[in-house]
Amino acid sequence: MSQNYEISQPLPPSVKRASTILQWSGNIGFWTQLVLGVLAAALLFLSLAGLVTQDKSSEGTSFSVFCSISGVIALMISTFICFRYKKIAQLMKNPEPKARPKKSSTLQLIRAGLLSNLVGIFLSIIGAEGFVGILWRKLSNIPQGAAVYDTGKLPTPSEILLLLANTHTISCHFAGIIVGLYLLDRLDR
After folding, report:
1. In 3D, which of 59, 39, 2, 25 has the Cα closest to residue 175?
2. Which residues cross the membrane (predicted)?
3. Structure pTM?
4. Cβ–Cβ under 8 Å, residues 188 and 114
5. CA pair distance 26, 185, nearest whole angstrom
6. How many CB atoms are closer than 10 A to CB 40?
7. Angle at CA 73, nearest 5°, toward 51 and 174?
């Protein structure tokens, strides 16, 4: 009765450290972006529902809405990439060196996450700036001390929710950028 025992090689300390860093960073990035992103998406779609039910929407909202939706889509991509960090960390624990992901492909994924966050934060800022301009235009057309009888000249709750959704999306992308830069700093050595 002969037993075939395989001697597994222990993981090198650098691989073990990289796996731990990817696992923790992936968890932090994933859950931060998921929780805040769900809140941002909910605010965005609530505000869009409010804009659709209004008789007339403010001029110039369509481009800002497009930028806001694009920022949330970029956030979903970034959240998925953070989830991939966790999966790569698990693959790195494989005792067979050839089965582990390459460092170059891992760094490429981190760069793709950073690019997704940078594009998303840019679009969200453009969307937020557009809504701030719309709100400023509405409020600047009201004379000081005048009673407002035409409520169409006042900002609507939907417009304020759109601005809030953009700021939440910007916060999510900022968290993703922090995670990506941390990973590049720790793993690109």
Report:
1. 25
2. 28-51, 63-83, 112-136, 160-184
3. 0.83
4. no
5. 15
6. 26
7. 105
